[in-house]
């Protein structure tokens, strides 16, 4: 089951910059009729709103505040949800700060997608199923010791996304798990990856293709595709397989 974005109504979290902003722009370029752009501070979306000719609607969404997620789901015309918002807090795994970093990243990167799925599942189902895309990371399948707690949170998010694929699929909702490598965003810069980062547009185009093809896994950039080349066999035969029968 594929999902074409043309003429559809979408909602994107973390839309005020980086990958999220590019996703909003990309969806509009590919014909989305309206995009609810979510951010912790709706005022930060003014530029996107002005450029869109009325097709972008700002929405306050803070994944740490479940009430804002639930309020956003009152927009009952949403057909595509892209949960892009995420946080990274670098911490030495053996330091005293590691537990705080892990707790913070899990609240946003793991509980956040769960809150979004729970709130929007009935909305998407009511609108024919639609699609739910979760922006995970290449670090969800390979941990890097420079930011281990972030990697752990993305691995957990990826696990939840796998379950959402099965659960929401029964309601006619396509689920896509997006796994970017280093992308030119503030987060990549803070992680010291700016020299190898690729533009956010590669994520947008890969996501739209994955949606159209009905693909669960989306590995968009050069590093991600290299990982996918090694990982695809396992992903196809185990992760994407129906093993409920044992």
TrEMBL record:
Q: Which InterPro entries match?
A: NAD(P)-bd_dom_sf, Sc_DH/Rdtase_CS, SDR_fam
Taxonomically, the superkingdom here is: Bacteria
Q: What EC class is this?
A: oxidoreductase
* Coiled coil feature spans: none
Which keywords accompany this UniProt record? Answer: Oxidoreductase
**A GO term, aspect molecular function:** 2-dehydro-3-deoxy-D-gluconate 5-dehydrogenase activity
Q: Which Pfam families does this entry report, sorted A to Z?
A: adh_short
List its EC numbers. Answer: 1.1.1.127
Q: Which organism is it from?
A: Aquisphaera giovannonii
UniProt xrefs under Gene3D superfamilies: NAD(P)-binding Rossmann-like Domain (3.40.50.720)
Protein name in the entry: 2-dehydro-3-deoxy-D-gluconate 5-dehydrogenase
Query: What does the sequence similarity comment in the record state about its family?
Result: Belongs to the short-chain dehydrogenases/reductases (SDR) family.
């Amino acid at each position: 089951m594929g999902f074409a974005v043309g003429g559809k109504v979408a909602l994107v979290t973390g839309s005020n910059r980086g990958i999220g902003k590019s996703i909003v722009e990309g969806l509009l370029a590919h014909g989305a009729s309206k995009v609810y752009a979510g951010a912790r501070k709706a005022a930060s979306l003014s530029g996107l709103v002005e450029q869109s000719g009325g097709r972008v609607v700002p929405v306050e969404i803070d994944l740490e505040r479940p009430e804002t997620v639930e309020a956003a789901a009152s927009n009952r015309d949403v057909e595509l949800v892209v949960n892009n918002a995420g946080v990274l807090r670098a911490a030495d795994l053996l330091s005293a700060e590691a537990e705080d970093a892990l707790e913070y990243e899990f609240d946003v990167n793991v509980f956040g997608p769960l809150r979004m799925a729970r709130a929007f599942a009935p909305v998407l189902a009511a609108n024919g199923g639609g699609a739910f895309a979760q922006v995970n990371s290449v670090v969800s399948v390979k941990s890097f010791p420079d930011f281990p707690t972030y990697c752990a949170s993305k691995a957990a998010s990826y696990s939840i996304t796998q379950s959402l694929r099965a659960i929401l699929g029964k309601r006619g909702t396509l689920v896509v798990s997006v796994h970017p490598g280093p992308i030119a965003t503030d987060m990549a810069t803070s992680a010291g990856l700016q020299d190898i980062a690729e533009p956010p547009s590669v994520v947008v185009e890969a996501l739209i293709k994955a949606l159209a093809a009905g693909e669960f896994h989306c590995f968009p950039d050069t590093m991600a595709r290299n990982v996918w080349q090694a990982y695809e066999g396992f992903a196809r035969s185990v992760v994407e397989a129906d093993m409920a029968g044992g």
